[in-house]
Write a structure and sequence with these properties.
heterotetramer; A: Rossmann fold; 7-stranded mixed beta sheet; 16 strands; B: TIM Barrel; 8-stranded parallel β-barrel; 4-stranded antiparallel beta sheet; 9 helices; about 30% helix; about 20% strand; binds flavin-adenine dinucleotide; binds flavin mononucleotide; binds FE2/S2 (inorganic) cluster
């Protein structure tokens, strides 16, 4: 909690990855000790519209002399993501983080499997990068609507020590199948843990599969957020005990077993 | 040197900037950005006798220069507050205003009676204006008679200042304000959020689960400021705490000029976790620039045409 | 092909996008950006029996995502409108809704009687909700009884549709809406501007000369949308014209879903002189994308939780 | 009226002229046949805050092949002017214009005198540039709060065929005097017409002086504007006949004699 800071980051590079997705490289003057699954709140506006910051998972981070360089993968869906797409290089954005609770990579056993759906890739990619560094072997399943939306394929290939399996809803790359169905088909008994991020229906399927297989699953959820720091209670997720927990603070990564049925 | 200390009725505050209820947790969540003891006061999230789960999700949506929320008063309950939170606030010497919520008169009383057993509470703020709960809250805040009876019933329970937080959705906010003051309220907080609707054009559903929610943020500032001034003109002797869309020191000055003795910063904290301190610093800078030696000079200083 | 034609009560409109009163002159000022005949209708600036000078300056100020105005119904008077403007509107085959304002029942009647002698007027919109004039307007719009008597008195004067433009500042907008419908209004326009205040911190004066003014623009969209839905739920048979902060086609869709049969674009025109046409094009594109073949399918289609 | 268009202009150059004032050069794809005293409504925002465009007098314009290049002189006083100051080169801004009624340079006689106060300079400078082109001889008086706020002095010297007289409130350049007092002191009987732009108190003094001297004065007024095209009636000015006229349409340049006492 004390590691979080609010600072200005400078946009140093942007690359378009698909018609609607792009990668941003940002440099900030102070450290950003983010763990895979943690996120930052990004503010792009000096005026009151847009009013609130937006949450983005950190996709990777490298310490610099005093600060850090980090990456975000962004899909353009509305106001702020459109602004991020057009922001000139050299611009400053407000970055508050790292925030929340990430994946517990230290307790994910000998051969975890990672699952990403659509723009759920960033935290999964960061986890993959980290596991590679830690020398843990793992597989990665990644599904998207269609081929162009399968981002950073060659980079993913390089990072994944085990199998990297791609699929698309429309079959334009890999099998034409939902990623969770593919995972079920290709399930290996040595999978020790499941880490996932993606749209809610996918995460529900992941949770079901993990339960069936008796493997713990960690899910990175995306709820609309106002503050990102636990004070607005806008981003809550229903837990198994019936209470609502702020996903910005207790999540965004939850163990599937913590969550209420259908959460 | 600008003198920032002020008072709301009999309550002395070290400065006129307060953190608003529901936007600052219980006062301890943002220690790294905004320690509660640096502020005039912190107003806690609304507390009810028992913990409340709150409303289903989605609970929030952004609108132009504003946001709609329907949290539904999720809170840890008064007991947990007294045990787990208050001791630390006390130790930090924070000025604590507890926002109190009940579905019935009895529930309000229960919360206050429990809090009366604790030291280190500066005032109570009765939330009779939450647009996001079915029972309680709004009912009291919309009906002068009900409100008068509520305040009159709670008044004997405590010597501590009783603030009443008014609803801008009341048919007559003025009548409600008068009722509260007549029944013994020490100050009025204006305003809570405005009943509002956001629609998702594609799903054809409201953007938040409960349908209606409460609008806050800069969008409502001109409406909140209007209400503060109207109430100040009508009941000049009533101490007011102004709130609604305050993002900057100048915004705070505008509310003081309109008759508020102190102001609360709400939604701004979501945008910047240290917003309260920024507003405070800007207020001080404004006073310096404009030669205002005592911030209380500003209160009610609006020159009406 | 999307069918855009719609109706407000018995009045057929070629599309549901109207230019709002007070934001489009008398219909002929923006021919180079937005010819009136391209719209569902143009609503004129409020007309009174005699020309009105309007309020002193400054009259406008920007606020977060909104603006406050206090024009005070400056207008050329009904006679000049009939002589100098209406012939051209008629020749262009524009659908013209005349916004009518009076300080007394008689003044409203005078304007309508004069207009009855003219061809080419599609409907009257009674402005009983202007927050910026001392007499008339607001009074009628706030008091169900007064409004009922006003509408009942005007009803026999014309066969043309009578729309009543409601004030969001009324103690009970619902009661006022019901009164208007009961007394014979053909449709309700919701909403006019919200009473608001902007303060200049340095001069310690209101930003506009009259003190209070009316807030419009995107800031009020969630409040206007809420009122439209509330009135639609309460009086589902009443045709509604939605207005308040519409800037885009999606905004228009939201008002249609909330129960409006057509919408008006106001402040947006100040930002872009062709805003009405942009909203119309975006509305059509939205329908195409979402497979809406007839824009009337949207009306009241909000799925309430 | 038909000449006005709404188009996107590209910011091609910016130069800081004083701590708070800067010049913008913009290029637009369609013609902008502005006359001195006319203005444009500039929109810098894709979101609803800032909501409205802002009026700026054209300080000069040159036709390009199909469009135009034009100049604005801007003083940073608030939201939009701050955004204009920080807008990256190459950015697009919305420009609606030319709007309003400018100076009547064709009927200003053999030797007009031009008066500018503070950021009232732009329309006056444009008028000066035009008069120079037309070969009309004229004097120019220009006052500002202090030396740094006297913008573009050497350029003004070059443009003015007759005397260019500068003064400052604090005496940091030229005489320490209000520009209207200086004009009165140095008044020449051959002055045939007076053109002025500046703060209202200055314009009131100009109007008094012109009346005393029996010379027609044209004043460029600055009223807050919402639409700039005559439909909101927000920008009105009180005329001698007691009516209010939209200054965006009937002005911003008015003959002093048209205006109500103290307007
Ligand atoms: C913890 C967390 C991590 C995230 N990480 C990433 C990431 O790495 N890359 C990425 O591209 N996106 C990520 N998101 C989603 C991202 O925050 C939203 O896409 C963004 O807030 C949209 O902002 P906008 O202003 O562009 O859209 P808006 O104009 O605010 O909204 C556009 C549309 O998006 C919907 N929307 C808004 N917020 C969310 C949300 N939080 N989740 C789903 N839909 C939403 C709205 O309902 C609306 O339909 C993450 C969200 C969370 C909570
Ligand atoms: C016809 C016309 C021509 C103009 N030409 C120029 C020009 O060439 N260069 C230039 O720098 N400025 C010019 N102005 C003034 C310019 O429009 C304002 O400075 C600008 O609108 C301020 O916008 P903002 O968002 O920065 O300030 P805001 O944040 O809107 O306001 C900041 C402060 O400026 C005041 N203000 C706002 N609008 C005006 C206004 N129209 N006049 C005076 N004060 C205002 C406000 O009251 C506030 O105190 C002109 C104005 C008009 C009407
Ligand atoms: C997410 C959220 C939660 C809130 N919870 C409470 C609450 O528990 N009790 C209360 O009296 N007001 C509550 N409010 C209202 C605020 O205290 C404040 O009155 C309102 O937001 C307007 O101020 P602002 O525009 O500065 O946010 C809440 C507001 C928001 C946005
Ligand atoms: C400058 C201005 C003038 C207006 N004049 C009138 C008027 O004469 N009659 C009327 O009924 N409404 C008038 N209105 C109200 C608008 O028609 C509309 O109801 C309101 O602005 C809300 O819509 P918007 O947010 O789209 O602007 C005026 C609004 C503005 C901003
Ligand atoms: S986003 Fe505010 S509590 Fe999580
Ligand atoms: S600015 Fe709208 S009429 Fe002049």
């Amino acid at each position: 909690m004390d590691a979080r800071v609010d600072q200005k980051a400078v946009l140093v590079a942007r690359s378009q990855l698909s018609p609607r997705c792009f990668a941003l490289d940002l440099v900030c003057p102070r450290p950003l000790p983010a763990q895979p699954g943690q996120f930052v709140m990004v503010g792009v506006s000096a005026t009151s519209d847009p009013l609130l910051r937006r949450p983005f998972s950190v996709a990777g981070v490298m310490p610099t002399e005093n600060g850090a360089q980090f990456q975000l993968l962004v899909k353009e869906v509305g106001k702020v993501t459109a602004m991020l797409r057009h922001l000139p290089l050299g611009s400053e954005v407000g970055v508050l983080g790292p925030l929340g609770r990430g994946f517990s990579l230290d307790s994910c056993g000998p051969h975890p499997v990672l699952v990403a759906g659509g723009i759920g890739l960033p935290p999964v990619l960061f986890a993959a990068r980290q596991l590679q560094k830690q020398g843990v072997s793992f597989d990665l399943f990644y599904g998207a609507a269609s081929e162009p939306e399968l981002l950073l394929r060659s980079e993913i290939q390089k990072v994944v020590s085990g199998d990297a399996v791609f699929c698309t809803d429309d079959g334009s790359f890999g099998e034409s199948v939902f990623v969770t169905d593919l995972l079920r088909k290709r399930w290996k008994s040595r999978y020790s843990h499941l880490l996932a991020c993606g749209p809610n229906p996918m995460l529900h399927a992941v949770a079901r599969l993990a339960r069936e297989k008796g493997v713990a699953a960690e899910l990175s959820l995306e709820e609309p957020m106002a503050c990102g720091v636990g004070v607005c209670l806008g981003c809550v997720v229903k837990l198994a005990d019936g209470t609502y927990a702020p996903s910005c603070q207790k999540g965004p990564v939850f163990r599937a077993s913590e969550l209420a049925e259908g959460w | 040197m600008v003198r920032l200390a002020t008072e709301v009725g009999s309550l002395q505050l070290k400065n006129p900037i307060l953190a608003a209820s529901g936007t600052f947790g219980y006062g301890l969540d943002l220690l790294d950005f905004c320690p509660p003891e640096a502020l005039g006061a912190v107003v806690t999230k609304g507390l009810s006798p028992k913990p409340r789960a709150g409303n289903p999700t989605p609970r929030i949506v952004e609108t132009p220069a504003g946001m709609i929320n329907s949290i539904g008063l999720q809170n840890i309950g008064v007991e947990a507050f007294c045990t787990d939170v208050l001791p630390t606030l006390r130790q930090r010497k924070a000025c604590v205003v507890v926002n109190v919520f009940g579905e019935t008169e009895e529930e309000y009383a229960t919360v206050i009676e429990r809090l009366q057993r604790e030291e280190g509470i500066a005032a109570y703020e009765l939330n009779v204006s939450c647009p996001n709960v079915h029972k309680g809250g709004m009912e009291f805040g919309h009906d002068p008679k009900l409100l008068r009876s509520l305040v009159a019933a709670l008044r004997p329970l405590t010597q501590r200042p009783l603030w009443v937080k008014l609803s801008p959705n009341a048919p007559s906010p003025l009548a409600v304000a008068e009722a509260a003051v007549t029944a013994g309220a020490d100050a009025l907080t204006l305003v809570n959020t405005f009943r509002a609707l956001s629609v998702n054009a594609r799903t054809r559903r409201p953007s938040i689960a409960t349908g209606f929610g409460g609008l806050s943020g800069p969008a409502i500032k001109p409406l909140a400021l209007r209400l503060v001034w109207e109430v100040h003109r009508a009941i000049p002797q009533a101490p007011l705490v102004g709130i609604g869309g305050i993002m900057s020191g100048t915004d705070a000055v505008e509310f003081l000029l309109a008759g508020a003795s102190a102001v609360q910063v709400g939604t701004a904290t979501f945008r910047n976790p240290n917003a309260c301190l920024t507003v405070l610093a800007e207020l001080e800078a404004f006073c310096q620039q404009e030669g205002v030696e005592d911030v209380r000079e500003l209160v009610g200083g609006l020159v009406w045409p």
